[in-house]
Amino acid sequence: MTAQQKLYEGKAKILYTTDDPDILLTYFKDDATAFNAQKRGSIQGKGAVNCAISSHLFRQLEAKGISTHFIDQASANEMRVRMVKILPLEVVVRNIAAGSLCKQTGLALGTPISPPLVEFYYKNDDLGDPLLTRDRLLLMGLATAEQVEQLQSMALRINEILIDFFQHCGITLVDFKLEFGLDAEQKILLADEISPDTCRLWDQGEADVARRVMDKDRFRQDLGEVESAYQRVMQRVLANPVSL
Ligand code: ADP
Ligand code: MG
Questions:
Q1: What DSSP element (H or E) covers 36?
Q2: pLDDT over threshold 70, residue 59
Q3: What's the pLDDT score for residue 2?
Q4: In this model, does residue 168 exceed pLDDT 80?
Q5: Ligand 1: which residue has its CA nearest to atom 14?
Q6: Is 126 left (phi over 0), alpha (psi -120 to 50) or beta?
Q7: Which of 35, 180, 214, 221 could form an SS bridge with 201, CB 3.0 to 4.6 Å?
Q8: Percentage of the chain with pLDDT > 70?
Q9: Which of 13, 20, 54 has most ligand 1 atoms within 8 Å of CB, for mutation?
């Protein structure tokens, strides 16, 4: 039997093979980690919430012309995706200063960033996912110069689409992390997930710096009410239909 073999178990998802070698099933887990897995826990219901949010956002991006790995949502916790060779890069887009950017630059939390910043990190847990320069990335052969250009422009376009979508949800898209992969034709597809685990999302209806947080920072910083914040993101996202 070739179907449903576990291919890889990561921190947040499990990848299964299917009877089609080009198609994988990704199972979203409730497990949560932060600070390079030094902090571990579980967020009840997170798997289903992140699967639903990711599926909806991938559909929205596809409708706007972004090529993604998304095929369909197979069940509450499962997404069917096109298998890609993941580029070992975390592509981060920032619209407002938060997290490691504040720590490393001294910029105050909440400082608007215009135009948006696109950063590349090396997806390598042993090294702690270090920030790369463009020259280091090329030196290491993690992508070609042409691919870097394409990743940069795709990331900025995805940012425009997601800012607009979340605006309709009353949510400010502060920053987010993307992963990309290459299909059999070497075409770049947006892969992995887009969820409160991988985005910073602030509730526009809350001025308080702790209360406005609707993403994994609630878990990282022990702000409480993690489950309900993820649920509220899902409700608002699913309430906004995919638009062309
Ligand atoms: P990690 O602990 O590495 O963050 P996750 O649990 O988030 O892992 O996800 C499992 C793995 O699946 C990640 O390494 C991610 O890069 C990979 N992945 C995501 N989408 C695809 C895809 N379409 N094809 C192959 N691998 C993928
Ligand atoms: Mg991951």
A1: none
A2: yes
A3: 55
A4: yes
A5: 10
A6: alpha
A7: 214
A8: 99
A9: 13
